[in-house]
Amino acid sequence: MRFTVEFSPEWFVLVDGNRGGFGVDDIDFARSILGLVGYRTTLFGMPASLEAGYRALRLDSSRRIIDTDVTLSGSFLGLTGYW
């Protein structure tokens, strides 16, 4: 699921979440959520956006020998170019 809220032609907020796994490739469960604030601009004549946000990823895996339950999370800065 993903949705974007436009505050102006330049500023936006994006939230993205998903889940999966379901036993494929020994991944029992995987889920992720991401939230960011972005600013649309141009760089060198190319449309671009600068983003800052936070992401969390959770994996539950059961391989033959090792069971793994891990959560990775943190903030990020991004630059996206569109052409």
TrEMBL record:
Q: Which domain of life is it from?
A: Bacteria
Protein name as annotated:
Uncharacterized protein
